[in-house]
Amino acid sequence: MNGAPRLSKSAASGLVLVVAALGLDIPAASTHSAAPPAPGAHAARPRVDEFVFRSEVFGNTRTIRVLLPPGYDDPKSTPTRYPVMYFTDGVAVFAPPGRNLPAVAEELWEANALPRLILIGVDNGACTRESTNPLADRASEYLPYQDQSWDEPRPEARGGRFPAFLIDEVMPEVARRYRVATGAGSTGLGGSSYGAIAALHAVLQRPGVFGRVLIESPSLHIGSGAMLRDAADARAWPARIALGVGTAEGDTPDTRLNMVDDCLRLRDTIRADPRVSLQVTIEPGAEHGEPAWRGRLPGALSWLWAE
């Protein structure tokens, strides 16, 4: 590997491949959305739904996971349209070994710390039916530039297609199935590690689609810093951005320093736009993985969706 030391492949993947890499027992998705519960007490509870989605952009099939907020199934709320936030690495975001978003959101809703919105987890390339190399397949879908820290042969960088996949394929299907509100102020996007790069790339390539964005531990070293150069040329940023990183992310002191420094460079770039509200969390001792991302998730969600 040339240049400053960066995250190893194992560190860079974190725990976001909890199903594909660890073989954890997560219930398989059905091919159709589950029927809503009968009207009554259960209609006031949040509900996890899921459906299988075929992408023409990537030519594969994956699960889309959906957390519907309390009251969504109440007949009285039928006219209501809800804000929506999408997450990369959907299986890790929803699974209890990962960020366990359903539990996090329910706690926030019970505390009135989060407005009622629909939360979407989009599974990564590692979890598609067609995946043969989970680590490489995830990297390929998320990265618009190659990661030089990989040994040859490196995964093909197909992340340039990710904005079209998410915005032109997934989002219209979600809007067809669920009562989602429209407009940037009602639409969020979040990701971590390579998934944060995919989210950042979507924001940069399609300005005006997302108004609230969570960027956790972004792998900004890819493409010899190309994402930072792209960010410097941004035409517009989302109105609210939460950026998080830990001081112990990486295998060496240089790597850990680079992770933080890269995030600070991104912070400074975003701050140059006075229209953006930016929250930056640099967590002492936090490593690159699900425990840290789950720990920062409640605060980030509450801040991003504050009225």
Please give a quick description of this structure.
By secondary structure, the chain is an alpha/beta fold. The chain has one domain (9-304): 3-Layer(aba) Sandwich (Rossmann fold).
% residues in beta strands: 15-25%
Note the gap between the termini.
Answer: 46 Å
The level of helicity is 25-40%
Please tell me the total number of domains: 1
Number of helices: 9
Order of helices and strands: HEEEHHEHHEHEHEHEH
Structural class: alpha/beta
Tell the overall outline: globular
Strand order of the largest sheet: 1-2-4-3-5-6-7-8
Number of strands: 8
The parts where pLDDT drops under 50 for at least 5 residues are 1-34
Average pLDDT reading = 89
The CATH homologous superfamily is named Alpha/Beta hydrolase fold, catalytic domain
Descriptors for this entry?
single chain, 307 residues, alpha/beta, Rossmann fold, eight-stranded mixed beta sheet, 9 helices, 8 strands, 33% helix, disordered N terminus
Q: If you had to describe this structure to a student in words, what would you say it looks like?
A:
This protein is α/β, with parallel strands linked by helices. It has one domain: Rossmann fold (3-Layer(aba) Sandwich). 33% of the residues lie in helices and 17% in strands. The chain has an eight-stranded mixed sheet, with helices on both faces. The chain is globular, with a radius of gyration of 18 Å.
